Amino acid sequence: MKTLALTLAALVLAGCHGFASRPRAPAPAAEPARGSAGVYDNHAQVWQARTQAAPVAVPHLRVTLSATARPEWTLWRVQLDGTQPMQALWAMHEVAAEVPMLVPHRALVAEPASGPQFDPAQWAALDACALRGGAAGTWSGDAATCTVLAPGIGPGMALLPLALTHEGEWLRLRLYADQARGADAREDLRRVQLFSGWAAVNGGGPKAAADNQDWHMDRAVRVENEGGRHRLRWRDGSATPWSLQLERIAYQDGNVPVLKLSVIEESSGQTLAYAWANPEASRIGIHLGWLQVGLERVVAAP
């Protein structure tokens, strides 16, 4: 990931004149970006690529799309994980036209207002980096034209979307920096879903005797299904040596998608046990004798 961070910085300084422009669709039918509010994560893509040899690893990306008081404006917070984390905040303005456009804006103030207080005057348009709507929810821009703005924007330019597709729970992005991974490189992010529930941990841990009744209830378990972690707690609130991880992944052998709940020992990173369920399941749990867990998907308010 350190190599990736250095590559991103070099791209911003040098520009990307060799980055080919995307073709523009003659009959646009792009899905409105403003209907995509939520949190997206490419954990499954990173997990799938972990055994694949590549000059630059697939970056772990998290994108939060937030609605504003103005329906044609959406805030995009793009976060890059790794040894040198980066993040950037963009305001995307959807312009209705024969060929709809999604115009990114950069903030003019350190802490721009959001939600009901959102103010377009706090943002400057990056017209050269505008994305044009095409078929099947696809938006694409002219990378060569956008490059001229890179020196004035700084390192955050690396996290500017140059092409995107929104389809159902999927948000597929090609960022300014993705040229370092090849002409077709992109991030495949899926909408994050939150699960909540409870866990009962026996004080004796994995070696607890069958008659040990020292149970510690953790009723505040909240974990996201795209690689989210929750550190289990004793009854006094202190951390136990174990965590839960919830993830939707697809194993290479058979490419069968599953929802996987794992119990992880924090000191070693070792997975002690796991349970599988259908990736669309609304409930998942595990019973190990010394540990019992029950989780249910949180239904978002309409």
Structure report:
The protein has 302 residues and is mostly beta strands. The protein folds into two domains: 2-191, Lipocalin (Beta Barrel), CATH 2.40.128; 194-297, no CATH class. 9% of the residues lie in helices and 43% in strands. The strands form three sheets. The chain has a ten-stranded antiparallel beta barrel. The protein has a four-stranded antiparallel β-sheet with strand order 13-12-19-18, with no helix packed on it.
Which features would summarize this protein structure in a list?
single chain, 302 residues, mainly beta, Lipocalin, 2 domains, ten-stranded antiparallel β-barrel, four-stranded antiparallel sheet, 4 helices, 19 strands, elongated
Number of helices: 4
CATH level 3 topology of the largest domain:
Lipocalin
Sheet with most strands: strand arrangement? 1-2-3-4-5-7-8-9-10-11
Strand content: 35-45%
- Nearest-angstrom radius of gyration? 22 Å
| Count of folded domains | 2
The dominant shape is elongated
The secondary-structure class comes to mainly beta
Overall strand count: 19
Helix content: under 10%
Please provide a brief summary of the model.
The protein is mostly beta strands and 302 residues long. The protein has helices at residues 2-14, 43-48, 143-146, 150-153; strands at 38-41, 61-67, 73-80, 86-95, 101-107, 123-125, 131-133, 138-140, 161-167, 170-175, 187-191, 194-202, 215-224, 226-233, 239-250, 257-265, 271-277, 283-287, 291-297. The longest helix is centred in the N-terminal third of the chain and has 13 residues, at 2-14.
